[in-house]
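Example 9 (inverse folding). The structure is encoded as follows.
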């Protein structure tokens, strides 16, 4: 017997709305589906394919997630991120040093930048700019046609 139940259209719409709300708040789809225990990823994908309205809700949620992650990156970059280091001598607390953990924030921001670049490369991906005044000439360019199946 399956752990997932048969949903009415109203229940499906409510489930998709709750899933999309959670995704818009920055959560990954797999975590959201596990948290709610609503449906399997394949069932959710099938719902999106069968109903254009659900698919549109999901796409909109993904756009909101991008904005959420961008805002989160800015919050992390400009927030106070103190890190406490406690020094003990003979089992007694001697000194507590509080300092900003720049490396922690850098790691989080770089991770979010990478995620945003993968989610929306046109908006957040790294861009390559060719400078005409470059001193090193380009010696070769190799073009690969991904639609060519002559392998």
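The amino acid assigned to each position is listed next.
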């Amino acid at each position: 017997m399956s752990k997932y139940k048969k949903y009415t259209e109203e229940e499906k719409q409510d489930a998709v709305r709750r899933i999309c709300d959670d995704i818009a708040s920055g959560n990954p789809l797999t975590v959201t589906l596990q948290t709610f225990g609503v449906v399997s990823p394949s069932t959710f994908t099938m719902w999106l394919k069968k109903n254009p309205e659900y698919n549109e809700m999901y796409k909109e949620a993904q756009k909101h997630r991008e904005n959420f992650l961008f805002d989160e990156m800015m919050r992390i970059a400009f927030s106070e991120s103190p890190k406490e280091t406690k020094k003990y001598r003979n089992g007694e607390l001697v000194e507590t040093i509080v300092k900003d953990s720049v490396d922690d924030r850098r790691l989080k921001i770089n991770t979010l930048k990478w995620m945003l670049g993968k989610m929306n490369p046109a908006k957040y991906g790294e861009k390559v700019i060719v400078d005409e005044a470059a001193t090193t000439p380009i010696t070769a360019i190799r073009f690969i046609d991904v639609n060519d199946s002559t392998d």
